[in-house]
Amino acid sequence: MPDSALASGATTAADAFRRDVLSGLRKSQKTLPSKYLYDARGSELFDQITRLDVYYPTETERAILREHIGEIAAAIGDRPIVVEYGSGSSDKTRILLEELQHEIAAYVPIDISPSALGDAAERLRQRYPAMEVLPVAADYTRPLALPELPPHDHIVVFFPGSTIGNFEADEARAFFAQAARVAGSGRGTGGLLIGADQRKPLDVLIPAYDDPEGVTAAFNLNLLTRINRELDADFDLGLWRHEARWNENESRIEMHLVSQADQRATVAGEAFAFASGETIHTEISTKYGPEGLADLAADAGWTRQDRWTDARSWFAVERYTL
Ligand code: AVJ
C-alpha cells in the first residue's frame, strides 16, 4: 500500500488488530475479540478441536447434513452461488459440494485466515475441477466486496459450525442483515443455510470447551502468543490459565484467560495490570433454544423454511429465505 494511503487513515489488518486488542484490554472486564484466535496456529488448533471426542458440534452437524443432504440440495435449487462465511478448512462444505458440485455456479469461501483459506481453495480445485472457486481473504464482520460472479440463479449464504454463536445479539443481527444484502444481490430469491448449537446439559457442554487433552486451552492461550509476536507484547504464558464457564443468563459458554498472579504486561508500548484471578474474556459460544435463531434472523427479513436436527436435538441446521 502506498504511504499516502496509510497517511490518509486507511487501516491495515495489523492496525485493526492493535486497535482492537488495546481497546479490549482497557475495559474493566478485559476482553479480546474471538476472531483473532484464528491465526495460522489457531486455525490448526481449532481443526484439532473439531476432531476431539468431547467436541460434539462438528460431528453432530456433519451427521445432520449427511442425513438430509438430498432434501437440502433440492431446497437450495438450481445454479446457486454458495458463499461460505468463516470457511476455514472447508471440511463440512464437502458434504454440500459432493452433492452440488455440478449445479453450483461458484463457491466463494470467505475466511479471516489467509493460510487456512489458501490451502482449502487449492484442495477444492483439485477435487472439484469443474467448479469455480473464488476465495476471499477477509474479516466478514466488516463490509466486504464479493468478487465478480459468474451467471447464477441465486445466492445462498452457508454459515455452518454455529459460528453465529460467537456473536453478541447485536453482532448476530448485523450478520443476518449483511447476509441478506449479499444473498439479496443475486437474481433469484436469496437463501441462508446456517448451523446453530443448542442448549444441552452442562456435563456435555463444559468438557467440549475444556477438553482433557488441553487442546482448547492451547487454542485460547495461543491468542496471547499471537499478541506477544505481532504487537511486541510480553505476556508470561506460564501465568495464565484457560477457563470455560457457563453463563446461564445469556445462555452461553464463555472462554476466559485467568491471571494466576498479580502481574503486568506491556502491549504495543502500553502497560496493563492484571490482578490475580482477573480474567480476559476471549470468546462467547451461544447455545440456542428452538426459536432463538429464527427470532434474530426475522429482524433482517429472513423466514425460516426448514429445520433439521439430530435425535438428541443437540444441534440444528436451518434454512431461511428472504
Ligand atoms: C466454530 C466458533 C463455533 O464456539 O464452538 C471451539 C469455536 N471455541 N472451542 C465454538 C470454539 C472453543 C467454535 N466455533
TrEMBL record:
<dbReference type="GO" id="GO:0032259">
    <property type="term" value="P:methylation"/>
</dbReference>
<keyword id="KW-0489">Methyltransferase</keyword>
<feature type="domain" description="Histidine-specific methyltransferase SAM-dependent">
    <location>
        <begin position="17"/>
        <end position="317"/>
    </location>
</feature>
<dbReference type="InterPro" id="IPR029063">
    <property type="entry name" value="SAM-dependent_MTases_sf"/>
</dbReference>
<dbReference type="InterPro" id="IPR051128">
    <property type="entry name" value="EgtD_Methyltrsf_superfamily"/>
</dbReference>
<dbReference type="InterPro" id="IPR017804">
    <property type="entry name" value="MeTrfase_EgtD-like"/>
</dbReference>
<keyword id="KW-0808">Transferase</keyword>
<protein>
    <submittedName>
        <fullName>Dimethylhistidine N-methyltransferase</fullName>
    </submittedName>
</protein>
<dbReference type="Pfam" id="PF10017">
    <property type="entry name" value="Methyltransf_33"/>
</dbReference>
<dbReference type="InterPro" id="IPR035094">
    <property type="entry name" value="EgtD"/>
</dbReference>
<dbReference type="InterPro" id="IPR019257">
    <property type="entry name" value="MeTrfase_dom"/>
</dbReference>
<dbReference type="GO" id="GO:0008168">
    <property type="term" value="F:methyltransferase activity"/>
</dbReference>
